[in-house]
Amino acid sequence: MSVLDLARPELRAMQPYSSARMEASGGQVFLNANESAWVPVGDDGLGCNRYPEPQPAALVDALTTLYGVRGEQLLVGRGSDEVIDLLVRAFCNAGRDAILIQPPTFGMYAVCARVQGATVVEAPLAADFTLDVDAVLAALTPAVKLVFVCTPNNPAGLAAPRAAIERLVRALSGRALLVVDEAYVEFADEGSVVDLIDRHDNLAVLRTLSKAWALAGARIGSLLANAEVIALLRRIMAPYPLPLPCVDAALRALSGPGQANARERIGIVRAQRVRMQQALRELPGVREVLPSQANFLAVRFDDAGATYQRLLAAGIVVRDVRRYPGLGNALRITIGTPEENARVLAVLASDRVLA
């Protein structure tokens, strides 16, 4: 059985849109795409008067090297959000198919499914926020085409053991595509499961440059998967998804100096995460600091609402995650610079709001 047997057959048979950039072959004078012949003011050599490559070769090369995959196993999109949406549209028929998630988890899986008219099946994480493989398999129905696992988990912060991912992908073979969202994996002790792609055609891995690579504003996300899955998604995605300035920013971030800078900052975040965990546990009003392998901490407070307002009054914005299952008294605090982290601790330790 091919993994594409799980996908929508009408999309597999569809004639994809062929853009002018796809059809261009050589040439020096480009009059095939109805573009402007003149560069805009302040272009700085980017050539923004021309449509970008659908999958820019230089960026694809840089990302395949970074992630350790082949070019046909990688799709670059406008952040992981676009890739999640493409997966749901490719594999889920409206009113018939479903996805499976483990709350609490990243909200866009369910949003994309509901926009597509797909059902959302839930198999909650265990009480300690670990991945419950048995619960996932028990909740699986023939309608489920995609199973999303966020590791490290957002918003709780815990990573799923590699053994659990391997067990799950084996059990889902021929039944569903397992999508492992590794948005925060650079901050984790345990590495990526991308090396399992060659062994399991029903495994897909999401990666992003938004977190560890400091490019949230550039919107560069990748799907790493079986070549057939990548080819299918390329058929249905927008013809020109990646703006040239965003591609340029990504290439600079992935250069030698850019990678050295990112790894230095990742080290700072990991060290600051430990410091914040220890310091927060000693503060009055803090009930628990959940273990985290991401660049944030989920913290339980005696009065999370009052704490949120207190931080906000001091100019500090954190994420209120009380609406998530199991996190009814928690706030999510991103690890910032050492100075920003010290300010958070000072506000929480003080009886008054700092000016």
From TrEMBL:
InterPro entries cross-referenced by the UniProt entry: Aminotrans_II_pyridoxalP_BS, Aminotransferase_I/II_large, HisP_aminotrans, PyrdxlP-dep_Trfase, PyrdxlP-dep_Trfase_major, PyrdxlP-dep_Trfase_small
CDD domains: AAT_like
Reactions catalysed: L-histidinol phosphate + 2-oxoglutarate = 3-(imidazol-4-yl)-2-oxopropyl phosphate + L-glutamate
Gene (name only): hisC
Matching HAMAP family: HisC_aminotrans_2
PROSITE patterns: AA_TRANSFER_CLASS_2
GO MF terms, alphabetically ordered: histidinol-phosphate transaminase activity; pyridoxal phosphate binding
Enzyme category, top tier: transferase
UniProt KW keywords: Amino-acid biosynthesis, Aminotransferase, Histidine biosynthesis, Pyridoxal phosphate, Transferase
EC number from the UniProt entry: 2.6.1.9
Self-association state and partner proteins as the record states: Homodimer.
N6-(pyridoxal phosphate)lysine modifications at: K211
CC cofactor: pyridoxal 5'-phosphate
GO BP of this protein: L-histidine biosynthetic process
Family membership noted in the UniProt record: Belongs to the class-II pyridoxal-phosphate-dependent aminotransferase family. Histidinol-phosphate aminotransferase subfamily.
Domain of life: Bacteria
Gene3D superfamilies with a match to the protein in the record: Aspartate Aminotransferase, domain 1, Type I PLP-dependent aspartate aminotransferase-like (Major domain)
Pathway the protein takes part in: Amino-acid biosynthesis; L-histidine biosynthesis; L-histidine from 5-phospho-alpha-D-ribose 1-diphosphate: step 7/9
Pfam families: Aminotran_1_2
Protein's name in the database: Histidinol-phosphate aminotransferase
SUPFAM superfamilies tied to this protein: PLP-dependent transferases (SSF53383)
NCBIfam families for this protein: hisC
Coiled-coil residue windows: none
Domain Aminotransferase class I/classII large: 47-347
